[in-house]
Amino acid sequence: MAKYIVGLTGGIGSGKTTVSNMFADLGIEIIDADIIARQVVTPNSAALTAIAQHFGQEILLENGELNRSALRSKVFANDDEKQWLNALLHPLIRQSILSALAAASGDYCILSAPLLLENNLHVLVNTVLVVDVSVDTQLKRTCRRDNSDQQEVNAIINSQISREKRIGLANQVIDNESADLQQVKAQVTTLHKHYQNQAKTDDLAEQSFKK
After folding, report:
1. 211 — pLDDT class (breaks 50, 70, 90)
2. Which of 25, 14, 187 is nearest to 114 (CA)?
3. What pTM, to 2 d.p., does this model score?
4. What share of the chain has pLDDT > 70, as a percent?
5. Which residues define the annotated binding site for ATP?
6. Distance between CA 61 and CA 27 in Å, rounded?
7. Domain residue ranges in the chain
8. Main EC class of this protein (predicted)?
9. Binding residue ranges
């Protein structure tokens, strides 16, 4: 297991994936909660079967995969349905995350999760890194990226914790408002060195404690 775990998060459209990829380019192992969430609902999985039984077969694409946009529309329009889905998926996702963290190597690794704070996954990490942009920037970037309806994107933003609370829970913050990749990369490089040092410090402290 990696000696030090960084929890990476940010609101929709913040550029979290861009930051995650930059850390990956530095050789850091990334455990991506979004990828794990897709893996637990692959065709013929128990979770996807339960979802189809609950919401109807129209929730599936012709190839048997989950129709994510259709599911998202149903969930964001109904809190009860959202709670049902979370009760089904969150334990499966959490267990897969724990397994991935246990298998991670290196001085430190990153747990990348858009709902790191909302789903209390931050209790699994040593430090929380937030990628931050304004709500207006979130809205503009997401609508442009996903060709989404503004109302739907607003609903997603409102379903996440507020920008102020997210920053308040952060140990480090990357400012991605300008979308200047070189500026973001410089912040990532600085944090990379910081996390390496923290991992070594924690390791030394643990060795001293064991003595």
Report:
1. very low
2. 14
3. 0.86
4. 94
5. 13-18
6. 36
7. 1-28+108-211, 35-105
8. transferase
9. 13-18
